[in-house]
Design a protein that fits this description.
Length: 793
């Protein structure tokens, strides 16, 4: 035996390479074949996915996009007054944001959205009751009126309305049920006082309304509003609102823009109102003073019976009037400068400064305009941000810089006005000295007349400024205008029909694909030839298909079944594997892999060549051949070894499956099977049987459990190792390779047993040894698996 094993000097360690073999297109073909074999599951799941997509689209409320475009007056982009000034350069160095971007932040503020919700009463909505969900509607046959403040809404309600009669209604939801009367107030807990006014005849079809807290509704609209600047080189703003009702969405977005324009105008009017308030306060004071002076003049004339004054006094009065008028203008400008200084002293809470109070100083008026713009921008940003926000801090820094410039300008202007007042005062004093030379009565009148001229000049100046400011306030327009009114898209934004159908199809196809993949991933047993190839370098002698027949012996003289042909092909390959040897050992990793079944049928296949075959049942721990053949238990191998007087002829018996196949039973189960297998009488028995039979087949215990097979390998010329599809563990395929590498059993060839047809998975697959094992290849149709067996792999 050892001589035959050493006929070929083979370096098994060099021959075996346990690294994975390079994959070729067999993996792809195997994958495609497996998908095609289970096409009905893919078709079914894809159909379910498409039906699911249809139902989703059928019962999902579509969402539309409403678009609008605003044009904003941007001084930085339009070349305003300060664009080329030193102040404009300073603003750019300080990193000031474009006013367009500031307006974007204003449009996003929660306060502006709240104003829109209040104006449109968007905290109340109407719907029709559907089978799956409520369908929002634009108008309902009734109107819900909130009689209390919208800010009192603390809870959300969705109520169905069903008319009981012409006046009574039933309001209900899964948690609430109560009754109310049309046009009569009722209290809804957590909301306040409501009233339902009919707008038409209420139908019996269920409809209803919902009401939600103001802040949550405003937050919901804010999340659906998109405000963007499409291009940094233009001053336009794109607004987009997502809503389920396109017409209602257009109205909501229009109201939002209107409220934004109102806010913008209100900011501009704040400056004008501040200036008017300052002028009005000064006018009231000057009017009272002027009235007092006129009363004094009238009383003076009556007391002194003064009808007219001399020509000299008239000239002096007229000269004094010119000087006093200029002096009054200077005094008014000083008062305005002092008022501006008071406004600038508050550094913690900046506020707008009255404008147009010093008309001759164009630079200072430009500073006031810039200062007021920055203050209003800061107030806007504080609506949606804190004072720690970088944008707010940036604007605050700009305000501080402009304030310093204004304070310096105010100081310089005041010094100039002081000098002008001193000059006018000197001229007025020279006239006064001349007046002292006129008679006493006329001199008193001249003093009063001069005071009247001063107050009159102040009054006229303030009245002119008031008219200018009032006209300017009336002419105020928003710095933005709508260039593209709100319009809803014709097709809904969500759900996207094509994408949903594609997603449904992909999910439907992915389900069986994922199931197959996960099942293979979690499967630890041999399922394919690739599972064997990736972990094995031993040759495969043959493959045996799954058989539905109940008989243990499927090979006969007349048998032309596919499985019988597979045993014949294995018999042919065995002749090359034995190298003129005759002793064959059958083992496996564990019990149940078909050693006895394969040994029986291979024995019959060899016997059909008119060869004498002996089958030895050497699984002394758990014999099974005798039971498979339905033979009574008798004397066997263990009896022969123990009883030295027993002859081999006493334990040899006919198998009953073929006249050329004999059987040696295991005999009584001994306590020491390993010692019996290497007994000297076992060697004698093997030599004796070798002279009588052409082939000796030894059915050994699993090598992965006990060492019996390793002990019997000394008598074998070839070891056939059984691997059963769907039964043998993947890791167990390394056992025969380890046995060869450690020289425990040589040579070993594999037999793959119980291969089941899996359409494209194994079907028609030839391993390159001149045979195939697909059903129907030899003129006899096998049983194909049923469609539901997909789940039984």
């Amino acid at each position: 035996m050892n001589k035959k094993m050493s006929k070929k000097n083979i370096d098994w360690e060099d021959e075996f390479d346990f690294e994975e073999k390079k994959k070729d297109n067999r993996d792809l073909l195997r994958f495609i074949g497996r998908m095609l074999a289970n096409w009905y599951w893919f078709f079914l799941c894809a159909s379910i996915g498409l039906v699911g997509a249809f139902l989703y689209l059928r019962y999902t409320i579509p969402v539309y996009k409403v678009h609008a475009k605003l044009l904003v007056s941007d001084e930085k982009k339009g070349g305003g007054m300060l664009s080329s000034s030193a102040l404009g350069d300073l603003s750019s160095l300080m990193g000031a944001k474009n006013s367009v971007e500031n307006e974007v932040e204003v449009l996003k503020t929660a306060d502006l959205m709240r104003e829109m919700v209040l104006a449109e009463e968007a905290y109340i909505g109407y719907f029709n009751k559907g089978r799956v969900h409520n369908v929002p509607i634009l108008t309902a046959p009734f109107r819900v009126i909130l009689l209390t403040s919208p800010d009192s809404i603390g809870s959300s309600y969705t109520l169905e309305i069903q008319p009981i009669d012409t006046k009574k209604l039933k309001l209900s939801n899964p948690d609430t049920l109560f009754y109310a009367s049309l046009s009569e107030p009722f209290v809804l807990p957590g909301v306040g006082l409501l009233k339902i006014e009919p707008l038409g005849k209420l139908s019996k079809e269920s409809c209803g309304f919902w009401i939600a807290p103001l802040l949550s509704v405003a937050a919901s609209f804010s999340s659906r509003l998109s405000v963007e600047v499409p291009n940094k080189n233009v001053s336009t703003i794109d607004l987009m609102l997502e809503y389920t009702l396109p017409k209602r969405g257009e109205q909501l977005l229009k109201t939002l823009i209107d409220k934004y324009v109102e806010l913008n105008l209100r900011d501009k009017n704040v400056i004008a109102d501040s200036t008017l308030a300052f002028i009005n306060a000064r006018l009231r004071k000057i009017t009272d003073e002027l009235a007092g002076v006129e009363d004094r003049i009238s009383g003076y004339k009556k007391r002194n019976q003064l009808a007219d004054i001399s020509e000299q006094g008239r000239v002096l009065i007229e000269s004094s009037a010119g000087y006093t008028q200029k002096l009054a203008e200077v005094e008014t400008q000083l008062a305005a400068v002092d008022a501006v200084a008071i406004y600038l002293k508050d550094t913690q809470h900046p506020r707008v400064v009255p404008s147009s109070v010093i008309p001759q100083d164009i630079g200072f008026n430009a500073l006031i305009q810039r200062y007021n713009e920055l203050v209003l921008q800061r107030e806007r940003l504080l609506l949606a941000n804190t004072q720690d926000n970088p944008l707010v801090q940036n604007i605050t820094a700009q305000i501080a810089g402009v304030r310093e410039d204004m304070i310096a300008n105010v100081a310089s202007t005041r010094r100039q006005l002081e000098l002008a007042r001193q000059s006018q005062q000197q001229l007025a004093n020279s006239v006064t000295s001349q007046i002292t030379q006129v008679p006493t009565i006329e001199r008193g009148y001249i003093d009063l007349a001069r005071l009247q001229q001063i107050k009159q000049a102040q009054y006229i100046f303030l009245q002119e400024k008031w008219e200018e400011t009032a006209i300017g306030r009336t002419a105020n327009v928003s710095n933005s205008k709508v260039i593209d009114s709100p319009k809803a898209e014709q097709n809904p934004f969500s759900p996207k029909r094509k994408m949903i159908y594609a997603l449904g199809l992909i999910v439907g196809l992915a389900f069986p694909l994922g199931f197959i993949y996960i099942k293979d991933l979690l499967n630890v047993r041999i399922q394919s030839i690739e599972d064997i190839e990736h972990r094995n370098s031993l040759p495969i002698l043959g493959m045996i298909a799954h058989s539905e027949e109940q008989d243990q012996v499927v090979v006969s003289k007349t048998s032309r079944s596919p499985i019988a042909e597979q045993f014949r092909a294995m018999r042919t390959n065995l002749e090359f594997a034995l190298n003129d040897g005759k002793r064959i050992l059958f083992t496996s990793s564990m019990s149940g892999e078909g050693k006895s079944y394969v040994a029986l049928n291979l024995a019959v296949s060899l016997a059909l060549l008119d060869k004498k075959v002996i089958l030895m049942e050497l699984d002394l721990r758990k014999p099974s051949v005798t039971a498979k053949l339905g033979l009574p238990a008798g004397k066997g191998f263990s009896h022969y070894i123990v009883r030295s007087e027993m002859q081999a002829e006493e334990i040899i018996m006919s198998s009953g499956v073929h006249e050329n196949v004999d059987l040696i039973q295991a005999g009584a189960i001994p306590p020491n099977p390993a010692e019996l297998l290497i007994h000297s009488r076992a060697t004698e028995l093997m030599e004796s049987l070798g002279k009588r039979y052409d082939y000796i087949l030894m059915d050994a215990p699993p090598v992965g459990m006990v060492t019996d097979a390793q002990l019997l390998s000394r008598y074998a010329d070839c070891c056939l190792y059984l691997v059963r599809q769907g039964y043998t563990y993947k890791e167990q395929i390394r056992i025969p390779n380890d046995l060869v590498m450690t020289n425990k059993i040589k040579p070993i060839q594999l037999i793959v047993n119980d291969i089941q047809l899996k359409g494209g998975y194994y079907s028609g697959y030839g391993y390159g040894y001149g045979y195939g094992y697909g059903y129907g290849e030899y003129g006899q149709e096998g049983k194909r698996r049923k469609w539901w067996q997909f789940w039984k792999r």
